[in-house]
Every structure is written in C-alpha cells, then in structure tokens.
Amino acid sequence: MNRRMVLYMVGQMVKVEAALMVLPLLISVLYHNDCVYSFLISIAIALVFGFLLTIVFKPSNHIIYAKEGFVIVALSWLTLSLIGALPFTISGEIPNYIDAFFETVSGFTTTGASIVNDVEKLSRGILFWRSFTHWVGGMGVLVFIMAIIPTTTDRSMHILKAEVPGPMVGKLVPRLKDTAKILYLIYIAMTLLEFTLLLCGGMPWFDSAIHSFGTAGTGGFSLKNSSLAGYNPYLQWVITIFMLLFSLNFNLYYLLILRKFRSVFKSGEMWCFFGVYACAVVLVTANVYPLYHNASTALRQAAFQSASIISTTGFSTTDFNLWPGLSKAILLLLMFIGGCAGSTAGGLKSARIVLIVKIIKRELKRMLHPRSVENIRLEGKKVDNLTLNGVTTYFALYAVCFVLVFFVLSFEDFSIETNISATAACFNNIGPGLGAVGPASNYFAYSAISKIALSLAMLLGRLEIYPILISLTPSTWAKK
Fold first, then answer.
1. In angstroms, rounded to a whole number, what is the distance separating the alpha carbons of residues 460 and 401?
2. In degrees rounded to 5, what are phi and psi of residue 377?
3. Model pTM greater than 0.85?
4. What is the distance between the alpha carbons of residues 456 and 301, in angstroms, rounded to a whole number?
5. pLDDT value, residue 153
6. Cα–Cα distance measured from residue 475 to residue 473, given in angstroms and rounded to the nearest whole number
C-alpha cells in the first residue's frame, strides 16, 4: 500500500473542495447572508488540512495500483463529506453535525435525502452549496482532479474505475486526463443547456442554477418545500427530459460528437433503459388517471415521477404516496433499476440488469444443453468471465448490505414500508421514499445511529460497495 500517495491525493481533493466553496461564498456576499463567515472558516480549515496532507505526505512514488485507487476514492469521499458539512454547522442552519453530515453525504452522493424541515428558510449561500454538492458529486470530484492535475502514470485509471459507476469502465481516448476532460466538458455543456432552457421558461436564475445542479447530478435538492410542484408544465417537462439525458452513458454523447450515430442506436443498455421507462409511464398514467381526470396532467405527472425515480434524481411534482398501490410498486421497482452505467444516476444500473438476465438465460440453456458454449455480449462486445463474475458478486454484496442497513433501521418506530423504501432510496441514491420518508416528508425523525447507517448506505451506493469494503479490510493496509 502506497500510503503516502493515498493521503497526498486526499489532500489534493480537500484543496479542490476549498476552491469549490468560493462559489457559495460569493453567493452569500451577493445576497448579504450571515453565512459568509461560515464559508470563510470552512475554506480556511480545508486549506490548512489539505496543504498539511500534501506537504507532509508528498510521495516519492506516484504509482497507483488497484488497491490504492479504491482506498483513495473511499477516503476522499468520506473526507469530502466531513469537511463539506462544516458550513451547515458553523452557520447554525443545521446545528447538529450528524444531521449536517447526513445532508452533505446526501448531496455529494447525489441522493437528495434531507433532514431539513423547512428548506425555504435556508440562506441563499447554504442553498447554493447544498445543491452544488450534487453537481460536484455527479461526475466525481476525483475525475475533476484528474482533469486539471497532471498525473505521472496512467495507473490512475484505477481511480476512474473506482469512482465512475457501472460494471465496465473504459477510456474514451488513450490519455486518461483527456478522457476526464471530455467527460467534464460534456457535463458542463449539458448543464448550461438545461440552465438556459429553464431561464427561457421564466424560472429565476438562482432557481435555474439550483435545479440544473440537481438534475445534472441526478440529486434532487430543491429550494422549495414542494420541490417542483409550483413550477409550470414547460419547466417540469424540461427537467423530465434532462433527468433522462443525464441517466444515459456519457460515452454515447462522445460517440454523437464523433458522428457515430449507428453505434449510439445499437446500445442495448440505452434501449433497455428507455423500454423500462416507457412501460412504467404507460402503466402509471393509466393507473393515476382517475385521480386527475385529465390525460395530459396524468401523463406529465407519470412521466416526471418515473423519470425522477429511474434516474435516481428525486425531484417531485406531487406526493406519490397518495397514488394507488400499483403506481407505488412500479416506482419502488424503478428505484432498484436506476440509470445507465457511466452516467450520474444511481441504482443497480441497466447494464447490470441486462447482463444478469443474459447470465440467467445462458445458465438455463446450459442446463438443457450441458455441452453448449455461448458468449455473452454487451454493446456488441464479448463480456469476459471476470466481468460477469463481478456482476453476480455485486448483486450478492448489494443484497447483504441492503439487509444490514434495513436491520439497523428496523429498531426505529416506523413501518416496514418506510424502512424498506428508506433503505432503497438511500442505497440507490434516490432521496424520497414511501411512507414517512415520502416526497412530502424527510429523514429528520430517524435517530443518529440510523442517519449514520443511511449515510453509509448512500456512500456504498454511490461508490458501488467495493471501495468502502476494501478500505475496511485490514490486509489492504499491509505494507506489501
């Protein structure tokens, strides 16, 4: 274990976080908020801590192997959340540090689960930082660091694999730094496009920025207690479309730039994602129509909420807790499916769903024809057995971690529906669940232990389990 390199990279990340806090600081100055000093103090703490780590632990060996990559990602995200919670607590707007930590983890992991009872009472600077964490965490802060800081070795690919969600991660171009730049340029361009379209629909610039951050990171923090229910249908449709767009593999957008349209339309994962979404919209629209007595309204509500859940964004335009049981069951199912690999969305990912179905199909065929040999392909490429084993192992780990978190929540005085949906919503980085944690409620009533467990669930879901588990394994820290 190259411990010095691990701590050095964590220090670099903390310095970047200090720089990112300058934006909400400027917003606080612009709106004459009292939280200016909370950001100044937080920036000072982050800078001191970051420079200490990078100076004291400056490595002579910059090589990053798989083990270092996983540990760097896990420790960076934990440190990112611990320091990112400081402005909330220092300003007094979320005085309890565990609550502030929960809110920050929810922001960076793009979950959108909240403990704030009245969002509209928060200052502009805090609101901006709260939603900006979505945008930062969506593509990944370490990917951003790789884009702006020179690397001495391409072994930092291990960091990209540990941070970018999905069963398979590859470079868009030969140089990893160029890959990171391309990803972020696409990310920024799409965010700006949504921001512009929201402005054109009459949404104020601050609201447009907040909701663009939340949509881009598929996070879901809003500045209204009613989320997006108070905005006009045009704005709701724009956000619906962009929630879906940010749920697609960003490699597809790069292929579009290269004009490789045939490769894009051959994407099995993309069609699986849209197919599941379309089926959900049709069924939910038919199911909720009696509540609205208007086809266009029922369609808009169904399309928005289905997009919000399958993209793991978590925005809402209505309290779907009041919907019929079938619609709630469909939304619960969408929580587990999630978006595509290589996107900002959470969940199990459509690629894994496609692969697990193909694995089951192959095993059924093998039972009938033991001597048959069949290769599993995804996006036209053969999937090696190592990746397939990784997919099945991930499903097993996912189930174990899910049960453990649910077990911790079972000590709370909530219904099984609430605890299961809370676990699913946090593990899959969605935010609102069913029951007492529905879109009209929040997670404030949970105990400190449960909030820590749910924070861990959010980190496990965003980093897809392995970085956290590897970091907790004693053998990982051995010198050899």
1. 8
2. -120, 145
3. yes
4. 32
5. 46
6. 6
Give the model confidence (pLDDT) of 391-416 as tens digits. Answer: 889 899 999 999 999 999 999 999 99
- DSSP-assigned beta bridge partners for residue 381: 378
- Residue that has been written with the tokens 């982050």 in this structure: 46
pLDDT (tens digit per residue) in 46-69 = 999 999 999 998 877 777 777 888
Maximal C-alpha separation, the chain: 74
- pLDDT at 291 (0 to 100): 93
* The pair of three-digit structure tokens given for residue 97, joined into one six-digit string: 């540090």
Which amino acid is present at 296?
S
Q: Please tell me whether residue 377 adopts helix, strand or coil conformation.
A: strand
CB contact set of 272 (below 8 Å; sequence gap of 6+): 350, 353, 354
Return the amino acid letter for 76.
S
Secondary structure (H, E, C), 2-15: CHHHHHHHHHHHHH
Q: Which of 450, 479, 455 shows the shortest CA–CA distance to 77?
A: 455
Of 275, 152, 93, residue with least CA distance to 103: 93
Question: Cα separation of 37 and 28, whole Å?
Answer: 9
Residue 266: predicted pLDDT: 86
How far apart CA 53 and CA 15 sit, in angstroms, is 10
